[in-house]
TrEMBL record:
This is HAAAP family serine/threonine permease. Keywords: Amino-acid transport, Cell inner membrane, Cell membrane, Membrane, Symport, Transmembrane, Transmembrane helix, Transport. The lineage of its organism: Bacteria, Pseudomonadati, Pseudomonadota, Gammaproteobacteria, Pseudomonadales. NCBIfam families: stp. InterPro entries: Amino_acid_transport_2, Hydroxy_aa_transpt. Coiled coil: none annotated.
Length: 425
């Protein structure tokens, strides 16, 4: 099978590349990838990154594009290296065997499912804060509020994958405009709070320590790995042997849009608020948008910021549900059970509903969940597994010897060691 895959790759490599122009489907996927990535992680990034100081934030901004683009490109190439129509769990089994496939499927699920829990908490907090501070009404009991919100999102999920991607891409347009508007609005409010500690470069050991612990949050903030499997399968169906080239183009444009928009927004927030205010936002377990809405005495910001946060978190929940359900279905099938497609969908939705509802009701620390669950576990799937496959899988041999492979591996190891340190501290 690998020899056959290699011969197919060689045939396409020697054939002159003639791709069609940028299509509406390409634009939909680009915005869908952007929409999956921009959610709770992005809205909490100014808080966590700002608390680390100005210089670490500046270095993280420079690393953002290569760190996220090369990693997601590697995962896309990994899925594309399998048989046509195979998702990520099936490609793992094809390349590494049944036991490895089961292990990676389990890890894949636990890399993505905690993100749904984070979004469930963030969504409930955002709506609850909006009702209390902006609408001046008493929100319903937390258990009821979270249940209604999660049920509403799962109703959209029932419409199918293509509807989810289109819905996310449509929501991205007003979201980009609103995020850019808010970042520009904050410019006159910039102050020297964080810059007061930036006049001298920190000691190398302190700088490296801050960067080390911030990498997992950065990984999570730009992550859209849960939708990469569906993205790669669709690219292979659309473009066949040219799928890798077109998918790389889509990923590059999506990541450029992400990095420019998100880092401008992050710097605008961090330069507006003092370190003490950022610490207060972290203690309140609110996104930066909800904190800004409560901070400014401006009706437009007070109403717009929570609504932007709601849209961001909701569309990211939808995108990550695709990956989480894919992983859970894979686990159920690999356990030996063979339920019908409809029964499998109902089992998956029921499990997601119950667990997300319980966690949203309990309201654990969002940043704590990102630091200890989201970033490091994602890193093992997003950063390390594709790099290992490049070294071991014949179908991916053509990607060996690239400096980007070393960079991606190093970032993945940094994220995982930061988890070990956080748990031991």
């Amino acid at each position: 099978m690998n020899d056959q895959a290699n011969s197919v790759d060689e045939r396409y490599a020697t054939t002159p590349v003639t791709l069609t122009g940028w299509s509406r489907q390409d634009m939909t996927w680009m915005l869908g990838l952007f929409g999956t990535a921009i959610g709770a992680g992005t809205l909490f990034l100014p808080i966590n990154a700002g608390l680390g100081g100005f210089w670490p934030l500046l270095i993280l901004a420079l690393l953002a594009f290569p760190m996220t683009y090369y990693a997601h490109r590697g995962l896309t190439r990994f899925v594309l290296s399998g048989r046509a129509g195979s998702d990520i769990t099936e490609v793992v089994e094809e390349h590494f065997g049944i036991k490895a496939g089961a292990l990676i499927t389990l890890l894949y699920f636990f890399a993505i499912f905690p993100i749904l829990l984070i979004y469930s908490v963030a969504l409930t907090n955002t709506v609850g804060s909006f009702m209390s501070h902006q609408l001046h009404i008493e929100p319903p009991p937390r258990a009821l509020l979270s249940l209604v919100l999660i049920l509403g999102l799962l109703a959209v999920v029932r419409c199918g994958e293509q509807v989810i991607v289109k819905a996310m891409s449509l929501m991205v347009y007003p979201f980009i405009v609103a995020l850019l508007f808010l970042a520009v609005y904050l410019v006159p409010h910039w102050n020297g709070g964080i810059l007061s500690t930036a006049s001298s470069v920190p000691a190398p050991s302190a700088l490296l320590h801050t960067l080390w612990l911030a990498i997992p949050v950065m990984v999570f903030s730009f992550n859209h790995s849960p939708i990469i499997s569906a993205f790669a399968v669709d690219q292979k169906r659309q473009y066949g042997g040219h799928a890798e080239e077109r998918s790389s183009q889509i990923l590059c444009r999506a990541h450029l849009l992400m990095v420019v928009m998100v880092m401008f927004f992050v710097f605008s927030c961090v330069l507006t608020l003092s370190p003490a205010q950022l610490a207060e936002a972290k203690a309140q377990n609110l996104s930066i948008l909800s904190y800004l809405a409560n901070h400014f005495d401006n009706p437009t910001i007070a109403f717009a910021a929570p609504l932007i946060a709601f849209v961001a978190i909701a569309k990211s929940f939808l995108g990550h549900y695709i990956g989480a359900s894919e992983g859970l279905k894979g686990l159920i099938v690999k356990s030996g059970r063979r339920p019908g497609a409809k029964a499998l969908d109902r089992m998956t939705a029921g499990f997601m509903l119950v667990v997300c509802w319980i966690v949203a009701t309990l309201n654990p620390s969002i940043l704590g969940m990102i630091e200890t669950l989201g970033g490091p576990i994602i890193a093992s799937i997003l950063f390390l597994m594709p790099m290992y496959a490049i070294r071991k899988v014949p179908a991916m041999a053509k990607y060996r010897g690239q400096m980007s492979n070393v960079f991606v591996t190093a970032v993945g190891l940094v994220a995982i060691t930061a988890l070990v340190y956080s748990l031991a501290a």
